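Blackboard transcription, Thursday session:
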Amino acid sequence: MVSAVVSTGEAQAQRPLGAAASDLAIELVKINKRFGPVHANKDIDLKVRRGTVHGIVGENGAGKSTLMSILYGFYTADSGEIRVNGRAEAITDSRYALKLGIGMVHQHFMLVDNFSILENVVLGAEDSALLGKSLTRARAELTRLAREYRLEVDPDAIIEDVSVGTQQRVEILKALYRGADVLILDEPTGVLTPAEADDLFRVLNVLRDQGKTIILITHKLREIMAVTDYVSVMRQGQMVETLKTSETSPEQLAELMVGRRVLLRVDKGAAHPGDTFLSVEDLVVKDDLGVTRVKGVSFSVRAGEIVGIAGVAGNGQSELLESVSGMRDQSAGTVKLKGVPLSLEGDDGAHRARKAGLAHVPEDRQRMGLITSFEEWENAMLGYEDDKAYGKGLLLDINAARAEARERIAKFDIRPTNERLKTANFSGGNQQKIVLAREMERNPDVLIVGQPTRGVDIGAIEFIHNQIIKMRDAGKAILLVSVELDEIRSLSDRILVMFDGQIVGEADPATATEQELGLMMAGIGKEAGK
Amino acid sequence: MDMVVILSTLDATIRLSTPLLLACLAGMYSERAGVFDIGLEGKMLMAAFAAAATASVTGSVWAGLAAGLGISLMTALLQGAAAITLKGNQLIAGTAINMLAVGLTTFLGIQWFAQGGRTPQLKEGERFTEVKLPFADELANVPVVGPIYSDLISGHNILVYIAFLAVPVTWFVLFRTRFGLRLRAVGENPKAVDTAGISVIAMRYQAVLITGLLCGFAGAFFSIAQGSGFGNNMTAGKGFIALAALIFAKWKPVPAMFTCLLFGFLDALQIRLQGVEVGGVQVPVQAIQALPYVLTVILLAGFIGKAVGPKAGGVAYSKER
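(Written on the board underneath:)
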């Protein structure tokens, strides 16, 4: 949990002078915005109180980011009114928004990688034509901000050398340096490790206690519950409801977001493990730079069970996945499928693995799972083009392929239901369903899934989880890798924890606590219990 | 080799590296702002023609320089419109400028002056002549320092001094001014600049115009300072060598100067080596003339390591929906 920081009287005194005029920092009245035929924001009303953390939740495409872009001056609303500190303002560009004290921390950081932290903070807010004075002032100001909000950074460090968590700090510092009183954060934890996310929440609490107003856009309910005071739910371009966080529950929020009841807990019966389908022995894998990332890993997955691999991103899970699925050569060790060693070496290793009955849903679907500029049906058969179902000889039976794509669209509830649409036009969740359908419908013996619900909406998460359980219950062996600890805990029948290229422990999801797993993920705690 | 030979080779080095240096610094502004410019050659050629033609017709070297700068700026603006506003491919835009320049200068040269594309020989006052720096004569007899100052440093035309002065100025502009910070940022992450409330388009146009200005000086150097008149395709690929120098110098002003001096030295050496015999066999002139170009390829391929240019280079900026 996040530790609250006690607010001081001094902090109260720092509130802007106009504070007395209204206790609302931001008020949006009947905001409308259309993009062609899409009505992204419909009559949105929103009141954000000063000195609070206000969460905005909703699925992808619910209109959260559009609304915030209007507030930040990136877009202009078609109609409606924005009031800042009780005064109606026409925010036509982000420069004016900054002037009103509204700062934004974007989901994809707006930093110049080879600039120092200091230069990034100063960029666009220089005092004069010569830099010297601005840099001196910024350096002093950063020291002050670091003290006041506990946001320490090394001003001379180069952005590309610092962690993602620090980069986010720089974004927050940038906004504060420009005098932001209202801070908008767009999906801030998407790229953070759990520890970095906790640190962010601590910073947000400090900022709030110092009188700043924070608007947090997210689709993670856990974060809403952990850090916000109020929460507004958006669905399909409309504001559904604003609630006090203390008076709501994740279940209620999920239902408001999706518009129907959603099961947050995965509903699954006991596993009935059978023969060992996949066994990995003493696997050693190096990354592109020749650094050993998997250091002698052994484990097995039996039919009818889900084995989850937990760990902080970057501890060798990606290389493990890529190696077992034949995309990356192994330096040592063997991978066996139903007792038969798989030959995975070479460029066609992945192809042979698939042929042998090992399906793979890659971690990064847009980079490895799909060609987003292709139409949906082309991706639905990607890698299986030489299958007899799609025609013999040189010619492709396009009609058969499209018919099959349509079938899968119906079966996996992929939306929009048009196989001729470019894959890039599908949402993250639907893209993931396209990949899942392609790999699952092959009826493989072993399914390897990496980050199955990264960037996927709540409604689709439920569906994807149920499909994975269904595969298990059909007697398949499933290897799951995810950085979402909740997902690992709720889906897996056995949990293996990976740290620094090794499996450092095994846990039973029914009994292991989050703390226990967290310690193992940090490399502390019990050794492999085999 | 005696002192005189060394000094005259170095003197030639400075002269020959001047247009390279001007073009290289020109490219630095544009590329640092994220607009790849392979049209340096074309802009120089246009400027060289305009400068010589104007100087010849008006009889004023300054009018010639002004015309060269003006034409180069207009060409840069045209290239900018294609690459920045119309979001065309930057390499194609640059190539188009190069092709246009070769064709247009030859065509207009033949039409206007009827000397096979050449402009009339420039007379005194129509071209830049050597500038004698103060005390050059007085110091000439001081040992070592004297000849270096009076022969090597003094006695060049004004464009040479402008080129070498542009090095510290460029360094200062890029790394010590607000404009430079924004310029470099636009080449690395234009979105960061846009969200900071600065116009990416305006920044890039400013950069491209500075490129045009410096290319104008470089072009004028060919026809109204080093030469005395315009000749067909007289820039002879120097724009591309400048581009190679820019990459070799990793887009930094001071290394750019030394790289251009190196390339200039190779060129000077090449001239001196013509007619040399190796083992009693006369080395063909063409082989020696090709040396600087061959060395350019070798340097770029072998010694440079990984050259990482401005990250957003080559891509037109558009706000995404």
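Lecturer's comment: Residues 3-32 of chain B form the longest helix (30 residues).
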